Known about the structure:
398 residues; Butyryl-Coa Dehydrogenase, subunit A, domain 1; Butyryl-CoA Dehydrogenase, subunit A, domain 2; 4-stranded mixed sheet; 4-stranded antiparallel sheet
Amino acid sequence: xxxxxxxxxxxxxxxxxxxxxxxxxxxxxxxxxxxxxxxxxxxxxxxxxxxxxxxxxxxxxxxxxxxxxxxxxxxxxxxxxxxxxxxxxxxxxxxxxxxxxxxxxxxxxxxxxxxxxxxxxxxxxxxxxxxxxxxxxxxxxxxxxxxxxxxxxxxxxxxxxxxxxxxxxxxxxxxxxxxxxxxxxxxxxxxxxxxxxxxxxxxxxxxxxxxxxxxxxxxxxxxxxxxxxxxxxxxxxxxxxxxxxxxxxxxxxxxxxxxxxxxxxxxxxxxxxxxxxxxxxxxxxxxxxxxxxxxxxxxxxxxxxxxxxxxxxxxxxxxxxxxxxxxxxxxxxxxxxxxxxxxxxxxxxxxxxxxxxxxxxxxxxxxxxxxxxxxxxxxxxxxxxxxxxxxxxxxxxx
Length: 398
């Protein structure tokens, strides 16, 4: 296997068992994803079922699921390491099991009751089912705490109406976790509730969102709810506790998105370091001898080491239950902004070849945009992250 610069840092940051897990996923990525991603791109197809089955066989869909439910008994740091390993070649490949776990399984693990866990977790861990998180809406992005999808209480249960969009893995989903408004008159943070809804329930309609030019091998769907009946047993968490489910889920999700950004940065660093030593100009000398080229290579390396060290530290805080919303927001902002800004510079020092799909950088350039807006737009998250710095200002985004 070709060496990755990121491995040098991970060996120092991780224990032996953690690094062995990362290495196994890295090797799978090099064997099963790297050689095929260009073919998938040019065929304009999503991640093939065969590749998803291979990920399931490797146990990637059950990383944090307890062994009693058929999972690997891992934790969120293992999930982040998977994102680094798979995201190196393709964020689309990484987000497929990543979203299935961080946005699908995690809400169930953190907020589900025992009956729901026993019903769903074994099949989710085995990759036989997949949950999708219905959060974003056509009219709701950063204001996700006040969904336009409504759940009105009736004699037989609740009636769901409305639309969710930008739902990752919708094509493969067996169920959708729907964040819906249940009491618009309640205090902020207590107005919504989450429900687990089968995708084949009457009134649920899915459509793939066309025209997407980032995460092209990932499924992104729009899900309509046309008077969908949901019952008491479908409720995830407490009535009025939808905001808590959402916040708890997104905190960990932002760490995973940060890992995707660093996976792309790690690929760019390795690709460019090799290229600038091979590409010759001016008396047949490598362009890597130019100071400006060296500056870009070094800036990428420093950003990778710095943000990776920070990310691993925050994962440890998350596992200890001490990670704040502001900390999760800041690492996502830092990793995605620095990786995408440096990727443009990396493409510039490589010249026109960087525009070719087979060179790989243009794929990561497009995908890095998603890391800037996914799990909360960086511009909105900056407002959130500013709260501890300006405690006397009461109207900062809650």
